[in-house]
Amino acid sequence: MLAAVDIGNSSTKIGLLELPVAAGVDGSMLPRQLLDFPTGQPLPAAVAERLLSISAPLRWEIASVNRGGTATVEAWVHEHRPQDTLRVLTRHDLPIALLVDQPERVGLDRMLVAVVANRLRSPSRPAVVICAGTAVTMNVVNRQGEFLGGAILPGFQMQSRSLRGGTDQLPLTEVIHEQLPPPAIGRNTEEAIRSGLYWGMVGAVQQLVAETERTLGEAPELFVTGGDLDRLAALSLEQARFLPSMVLQGIASLHLPAGH
């Protein structure tokens, strides 16, 4: 069994998949079970209990943008599941060329969503993946399947913490998924902040995609993954396809049978 691990700066997700990996009719490679916990924190009892209940050896494959989070998972596996194999992925493990200035600094999460986009896009069109985490990234793949780079901007909570930390009286405010989209005109301070965070992100994503299309000279296929962006995608990118757990799907794609 494969334990695909996506270690972000805020949360760590472990997806369990049978080997060999089989893609669904829509091309997706979703884990049969998803476990998550805050990055860098000890594994919660429920997560540890589930992992320890698996009698067969696990094949751990880790994609990480947080070194402390990687150390936490590695230490737990070595102590509690020494029979397993573990590999921390690098860019050299991924089937994608990077046409950027500093390929060694591109996050594994960005590369993996580009790998998935390459599997799902039309061969005649480029692709753009909008990925939400602690940061929101735009990731661009050309017709040839090469990663061109993209854009990085702060996510909802990072923006909210910046407002709180940089002012005397503005409160820390969460963007609540169940209350999206918020009204554009906030009737109190918290509502006004939610409006600015959410609709500001909608505008930023729309403009980034428009400028990318202009630069490429053609309309890319659009994919969205992560957090609250399923609703943002519906509002700002009418042709976008929302894909959950796209980083984990990227790890899973490395284990598809040859020819798939």
Task: Describe the structure in your own words.
The chain has helices at about 45-50, 65-80, 110-120, 155-165, 190-215, 230-235, 245-255, and strands at about 1-5, 10-15, 35-40, 60-65, 85-90, 125-130, 135-140, 145-155, 220-225, 240. It has about 260 residues and is of the alpha/beta class. It has one domain (about 1-155, about 200-255): Nucleotidyltransferase, domain 5. The strands form two sheets. Strands 3-2-1-4-5 form a five-stranded mixed beta sheet, with helices on both faces. The protein is globular, with a radius of gyration of 19 Å. It starts with a strand and ends in a 7-residue tail after the last helix. The relative contact order is 0.16. The mean pLDDT is about 90.
Topology overview:
Elements: E1 2-7, E2 11-17, E3 33-38, H1 45-52, E4 59-64, H2 67-80, E5 85-88, H3 108-120, E6 127-132, E7 135-141, E8 147-154, H4 156-166, H5 189-216, E9 221-225, H6 229-236, E10 241-242, H7 246-253
Parallel strand pairs: 1-4, 4-5, 6-9, 9-10
Antiparallel strand pairs: 1-2, 2-3, 6-7, 7-8
Helix pairs in contact: 3-7, 5-6
Specify the CATH homologous superfamily: ATPase, nucleotide binding domain
Assign the structural class, choosing from mainly alpha, mainly beta, alpha/beta, alpha+beta, or little secondary structure: alpha/beta
Return the average pLDDT rounded to an integer. 92
CATH architecture: 2-Layer Sandwich
Give the number of domains.
Answer: 1
Annotation field: number of helices: 7
Low-confidence stretches: none
Largest sheet, strands/sense/barrel: 5 strands, mixed
According to DSSP, the number of beta strands is 10
Q: Give the C-alpha Rg.
A: 19 Å
The H/E string reads: EEEHEHEHEEEHHEHEH
> What shape does the CA trace take?
globular
